[in-house]
Structure formats: C-alpha cells, structure tokens
Amino acid sequence: MENKYTAYILAGGKSQRMGSDKGLLMLNGKTFVSHIYEALEPIVGTNIVVITANPDYDSLGFTRIEDLIDDKGPVGGIYTALKHSKTKFNFILSVDAPLVSTDLLQWLADNHEDSYMMTQVQVGDKASPLIAIYDRSCKAAFGEHMAGKQLMLRKVIEDLTHQTLIVPEKWSQQVQNINTPEEYKKIQ
C-alpha cells in the first residue's frame, strides 16, 4: 500500500485556543505530530509530509512544505497537499488528533471505496474531514472554493462525492481533536 498513498499532516493552524503550536505539544514523551507520523508509517512508509510554515518542525526530521497560499485554513492545507501529491489517494490528518492509531487508519484505508473522491470518519453525529482520504482529483474543487473565497471545509465536501464511515466504538476516542488547554490536560 506504500506506493498507493501519500499522507499529509496539516499543522499550519494558528493554535489560538491552545496558545502554542499543537503539533509540538508533548504526549507520553513524543510530540503530537510524531504520534500521528508513527500511526501512518506502517501504512504509507515514509511517504509523509507535514504542512506548516513553522521551521521548528525541521528538528523532528520530517519532510515539511508550506501552504501554497497563506491563511486559507484547512481548505488551503488540503489544496497544498493535493497539488504536491504524486499519488491518487492521500491521507489528510490534522495535527490536533494525536490519538489516532495505525489500526484506525488501516481500517479507513481498507473501507475507502475508490469510486469516492473523499472518505471521512465519523463518531456520533460529528464527521471528521481531517481524518480522511482524499483523491488527488479533488484539488480542482479546493482551488475553485479558494478562488471564490469560500473556505468552509464542509462546503467543499458537499461538492465532492464522498463516503462517511462510522468509527467502531473501540476507536471512537481516537478521533477527538485536542484544541484547548483543557482538552490537552484530559489526555495527559
């Protein structure tokens, strides 16, 4: 599967609620971004790219690129990933989901149907488009939305043929986003 996928970790957010760069926060002796990288590696090898302008990530040894267009949020990050990608399918994960496991991500890959442009996971009534697989062909839709200054990720997804997978209960805690100091404290 290594050559079928590229994985992108979006770490370009401003982390305003957290107060510091979420990807560099520590959890069990490793950064958030390292946890996600290690969950992806058995599936995609080292075909993993971190998207951020923060040079502090360079010390971790990961491949890093910057957004093609600044300040476009997740829509801009996904656009950058899909423009950069050489593979048809691409894992897109937000750096604020450090609890994801290889098992959950392998399940996502195994259940993704190639006929869909995008497959996301869902727990309860909350879909997670930043724990997802995107077809590289989606970049046109992302480019159009950015050109029209429409930066709501859910609106872009409405324009894509997409699939939503309900996460099995045993992995449901892995999908949570850690965005505030309170949420960070809870997982430590």
From TrEMBL:
PANTHER family: MOLYBDENUM COFACTOR GUANYLYLTRANSFERASE. Its EC number is 2.7.7.77. It catalyses: Mo-molybdopterin + GTP + H(+) = Mo-molybdopterin guanine dinucleotide + diphosphate. Its cofactor is Mg(2+). Belongs to the MobA family. Transmembrane segments: none annotated. It comes from Flavobacterium faecale. Keywords: Cytoplasm, GTP-binding, Magnesium, Metal-binding, Molybdenum cofactor biosynthesis, Nucleotide-binding, Transferase. Its main location: cytoplasm. Mg(2+) binds at D96. The N-terminal domain determines nucleotide recognition and specific binding, while the C-terminal domain determines the specific binding to the target protein. GTP binds at L10, A11, G12, K22, D67, D96. GO terms for biological process: Mo-molybdopterin cofactor biosynthetic process. Transfers a GMP moiety from GTP to Mo-molybdopterin (Mo-MPT) cofactor (Moco or molybdenum cofactor) to form Mo-molybdopterin guanine dinucleotide (Mo-MGD) cofactor. This is Probable molybdenum cofactor guanylyltransferase. Residues 7-160 form the MobA-like NTP transferase domain. Pfam families: NTP_transf_3 (PF12804). CDD domains: MobA (cd02503). GO terms for cellular component: cytoplasm. The keyword Transport does not apply. It comes from the Bacteria. GO terms for molecular function: GTP binding; metal ion binding; molybdenum cofactor guanylyltransferase activity. It is found in: Cytoplasm.
